[in-house]
Amino acid sequence: MISRKDFILQAAAGGLCAGCTTAKSNPGFASVPGDVIPLGVITYSFASMPLKPFAVAQYAKQAGLTTVELKIEHLQLDAGAPGEGKRINKFSPELRAQYDDWFKTVTLDTYRELRKKYDDLGMGVHILKTVVGEKCREGGTADFWCEVAHILGADTITMEGPNPKSWSTTGPFLAKLAEKHDIRFGFHNHLQLKPDTYAGDDSIFQYSKKLGLCFDIGHFVAANGTAASLDFVKKHHDRIFSYHLKDRKANDEKTRACPFGEGGVPFKELFALIKREGWIVPGDIELEYAYDSRKTDAAREVAACAAHCRRVCREIQGVPPCSIAVSS
Which residues lie closer than 8 Å to 101 by C-beta, 6 or more apart? Predict the structure, then answer.
């Protein structure tokens, strides 16, 4: 018999038995029998762990995941930037000056070499998360970051959803970029997203089909409830470019995230809907719930989240669960 913790880690990393996870050595989403949603992880999930160059790739691998939504600060850490992986808007003036001096030495070749290293590590980047606007706080132009995203292999750039008051200017700007670079922009939500936010013909979606959502279903459930989340997915499925997978209690904006399966996010109903409709949309695990760092770490918890999602996928697909005995 193996311990429950070791079972979760091995099941997420792959190779226990037919119907369980198997991870590819090449970059890209792991091919998992029974999966109905390709699983990755946003590198924010590892913010509590020691960060050094290429650490997030190692943590993702430990969690049994091969594809990431890569946050800009982690990309830049891997590229050699100062700042120890901190968000650039948290830099002191002195550190920002060091960053700006470093960035003057950066070219697209910097990221081409970085892509080779990611490939060698077996990590695929399907989304780059950064700020792309008229003013890009990370230093490069909007065009520059679109080119970097393509070099990394990403087809989508995610950012926080723009204020509806700015849609008439932000929409045309991003639509032009999207068409020029053949890239999509996915707007991430917190609690501000309501069922009717993008409902009108005058929403930001009018400017391009390449403008859509990185739908954080956990935040949406906390703000609007379980049933509303499924209705929203049905209505906007063609504009959902990726999901942030987390669990939160329904209609409870004050309580933070909880372990998967303990909140109001309808994982089974969501995955069943995705399977029934044949939608192929990736989901990135975002670890935000509290855990005892004396007993576990972020990589292990992400693995547990992935195991929960894959267990639900197997139930939907009718794939028999693993038959390995697990000690409590």
Answer: none
Local mean pLDDT, 10-residue blocks, the chain (328 residues): 41 36 45 77 96 97 96 96 88 92 95 97 96 63 94 97 94 95 97 96 97 98 98 98 98 96 97 94 97 96 96 85 39
Q: Is the dihedral of CA 88, 91, 93, 95 positive or negative?
A: negative
What DSSP element (H or E) covers 299?
helix 298-317
What is the crossing angle of helices 4-13 and 298-317, to 10°?
70
Environment class of 138 (CB within 10 Å of its CB; exposed 0-12, middle 13-18, buried 19+): buried
The b/e string for 182-204 (b: 16+ C-beta within 10 A; e otherwise) is ebbbbbbbeeebebebbeeeebb
3-state secondary structure of 132: coil
What is the rounded distance in angstroms from the CA atom of residue 212 to the CA atom of residue 11?
A: 33
Q: What region, left, alpha or beta, does residue 123 occupy, with left being phi > 0 and alpha being psi -120 to 50 degrees?
A: beta
Instruction: Give the closest residue to 195 by CA, choosing from 169, 175, 168, 223.
Output: 223
Best CA proximity match to 224, nearest among 186, 196, 199: 196
Cα separation, 147 vs 154, in Å, equals 10
H or E element, residue 242: strand 240-245
